[in-house]
Hints:
Strand 1, helix 1 and strand 2 form a beta-alpha-beta unit. The chain has helices at about 15-25, 50-55, 70-80, 95-100, 120-125, 165-185, 220-230, 295-305, 315-325, and strands at about 5-10, 30-35, 60-65, 85, 105-110, 130-140, 150-155, 235-240, 245-250, 265-270, 270-275, 280-290, 295. Helix content is about 25%, strand content about 25%. It contains 9 helices and 13 strands. The strands form 2 sheets. Strands 3-2-1-4-5-6-7 form a 7-stranded mixed beta sheet. It folds into 2 domains: about 5-185, Formyl transferase, N-terminal domain (Rossmann fold, 3-Layer(aba) Sandwich), CATH 3.40.50; about 210-325, Rossmann fold. The radius of gyration is 22 Å and the shape is elongated. By secondary structure, the chain is α/β, with parallel strands linked by helices.
Amino acid sequence: MRTPGRVVFIGAVHEAAPALSALLESDAEVDAVFTLPAARAGSSSGFVDLAPLAQRHRVPVIHAEDINAPSIVAHIQRLHPDLVVVVGWTRLLGKQLLSIPPRGCIGFHASLLPRHRGRAPVNWAILRGETRTGNTMFMLTPEADMGDIVDQRVVGIEDDDTCADVYAKVGAAGAEMLRTHLTALLAGAAIRMPQTAGDAEPLRKRTPAMGITAWDRPARDVHNWIRALTLPYPGAFSHVRERKVMLWCSAVPGPDEPAGVPGSIMSCDAQGMRVGTRDGSLLVTAVSDAGASPQPAHRWFEHAGLAPGAAFDPVDELTARWALGAGPAPVISSRW
């Protein structure tokens, strides 16, 4: 016997796949999956093509640039869903779309709301050195990240976790919550807890230019910076001799790393490229030129024709503060 309930799914990025799998494995009737066109993959960090998964379950896939476009809203109205599930969609749903399903629209946010409302919550949590975040299942409203909470799960952030690692944990937590509460959501019986207002401004949107790396910071902070912004995001970067260098991976710094001038390349061997920081140094293990795939740092170093003593460009205080989410945007260099 099937659970009485029809579901429409909207999603596009990494956390969406586990949630969609949970839905497709349930007794709910998944009538359609709305996702971004594959052509948008390059401009959407963490994009995942949901079409193969949906098609294996014979669920129609509709590609939508704008989920609030009249034609898309009309399409969803014709499906008469009881519930809409939204995972990893960066645009807010409009009031007309939100009003369609009688059981509402359920969404997820990669933090423990009301903490870290806003954009890129996992990336911000890592680069700020936090050791835990979470995933919140909540009812969507016209206001961003403000609806009633249905459930939350804590997600730990290990010292060597990248943004991709943490988003994978977040996605698994979301799928688990969906399995736990789907029947109650479809019955209109899910327990809901109103959110408090919170005590902080929403997190800012991050842009690729904000990956500029200031080496005059503690080694742990630079390590957090690199792993917070690495693939599938645009990446941290720095410049040496007018050359833009993408910084993809670094080793967790220990308490007794050798000291060096911030930004100076102290050495490079098979283990990585050691760069000076404010309180010591950091071993950078994977880098690339802009637009190229990551490679071991020592191979890039050899091909670049550099020698120990070369130095990455310093970053002025205004730019460094802006990249950390504080202060106004500086004049952006064309080479960024």
